[in-house]
Amino acid sequence: MPAAVTSLAEYRAKRDFRKTAEPTPDVAMSKHKRPIFVVQEHHASRLHYDFRLEYDGVLKSWAVPREPSMNPADKRLAVQVEDHPIPYAKFEGTIPRGQYGAGEVHIWDRGTYDPAPGAAELGAGLDAGKVEFVLRGEKLKGRFTLVRMKGRGDKNWLLIKGRDEFARSASGNGRPRDVAPAPARPRPVDSRPKTGAPDGVELTNGDRVWFPEDGITKGDVFRYYLAIARRLLPFLRDRPVTLERIPGGIGPGQPHFWQKHTPEHYPSWIPRVDFPTERGQLVQYVLVNDERTLLYLVNQGTLTFHPWLSRVSDPDRPDFVLFDLDPGPATFGDAVTVAKELRRILEDEGFPAMPKTSGKSGLHVLVAWTQSGGFDQAREWARSVAARVTEELPDLATVEIRKATRGRRVYVDTLQNAKGHHAVPPYVVRPVAGAPVSMPLSWSELTSRLRPGQFTLRTALRRLSRQKSDPIAPLLKSFRT
Fold it and tell me: Are 189 and 62 in a shared domain?
């Protein structure tokens, strides 16, 4: 029996290939002319990085709890795990819940490698407890060493960057200190493309296609957020944010996950705040308070930012109330009719209402919360208003949570008005073909002729540059009080 088949027995035993899309050990793949390496970012029960080197027909593999570093001072623990089949080097996607290693996997770096000059080949190095090699990747370059830790069993190694021309000093987080932290500088909205990034934030893999049907790249998204930052940041600042990440772009089989907890390896200049979940688990949320943080997170694969409705200074009290109008099988024209009735009811009570597209098929109506009371009071008030809408438009609107009982009525959703829940802010890009964005509207624009997906990454900046007044400005003004 070939050695590769024998060494993959543990890999096979841990997986049910009827349920997981991971490659089976039986998938044939010819040997590469030069051996490859891959690093896969793995969002399992804990975020870690799977470091793999091709050798003897398999991928020798280590789980690295912290992001591999180009700083020789950073010694990364690397726990050797079972060998993987070589086709695993191309695997990206979701390992289903209940399966070994369940979670999102995407490729963080890849390339080829050679034994370091004068060093033993990989097999002999593994036996001796010291493997030296030269990586040729996009992020990891130059000489590295894997050293087995003494007295810690034979599975625990250290991954260490060698001191060569590629080595970098770092700020304690495994990333180069390009410049000292500095406050963001607002930029005017401009529909012309920009290529520069502020404060040393580096765009990597900018030509990676994120929206295949539209030819929109990661670089296009990065430049959009650079241009829109001045308008977007007031809706993110000082609010815990959940990140919706698509590091490989949208499409079948691409990783798509939600990130609440901020990884340790994120730079120290990125602000964080701790809040417990409903189950009491402490989550360290990121605060997107400046342009530099915004663009760093986009470069890490974030497409959509989902902030809380409250700020860290008063987390139990929302700044605004959200009415989310979901057409479901109803028409967008029906959603427009419901939105206008909602506006009439709100403004009759003295509450100015501001509409925006959700960025998908629906509409959002926002109202500044300036009354006394926190989330409980705001949510009950929102429920009562939604109930009045359904009384006025029983054939068009519903507050039924269950889809099966809504029929072809527009669902008036008020459930997001709760502590710890988040909302889609204006101007963010959504993970849908066409790269639509959530766009504030004037009430005169909101007609049945409007197409909810007409505001996109490619059209939004031109629209805003021609805009004489900002329809959502009253909500921003209320944030400052």
Answer: no
Instruction: Indicate the angle between helix axes 291-299 and 218-232, nearest 10 degrees.
Output: 160
Please choose, from the candidates 292, 289, 425, the residue with its C-alpha nearest in 3D space to the C-alpha of residue 357: 425
Phi, psi dihedral angles at 55 (to 5 degrees): -160, 130
Domain that holds residue 415: 178-481
d(CA 357, CA 359): 5
Q: What is the pTM of this model?
A: 0.63
> What stretches of 346-476 adopt beta strand conformation (E)?
354-357, 363-368, 397-398, 410-413
Q: Under a CB-based contact definition with an 8 Å cutoff, are residues 274 and 197 in contact?
A: no
Residue 303, phi then psi, degrees to nearest 5: -105, -45
171 domain residue, yes or no: no
Report pLDDT digits (tens) over 232-283. 999 999 999 999 999 999 988 888 999 999 988 899 899 999 988 777 778 9
CA distance 447 to 439: 14
**147 and 277 in one domain?**
no
The H-or-E segment that residue 240 falls in is: strand 240-245
Q: Using an 8 Å Cβ cutoff, are 321 and 373 in contact?
A: no
pLDDT digits (tens, 9 = 90+) for 5-51: 568 999 999 999 999 999 999 876 667 889 999 999 999 878 899 99
How far, in Å, CA of 18 to CA of 20, rounded?
Answer: 6
Which of the 8 DSSP states describes residue 457?
T
Domain membership of residue 170 (yes or no) is no
3-state secondary structure of 277: coil
Half-sphere exposure of 287 (CA within 13 A, CB side): 17
One DSSP character per residue, 142-184 reads: EEEEEEEPTTS-SSEEEEEE-SSTT---BSSSSSB--S-----
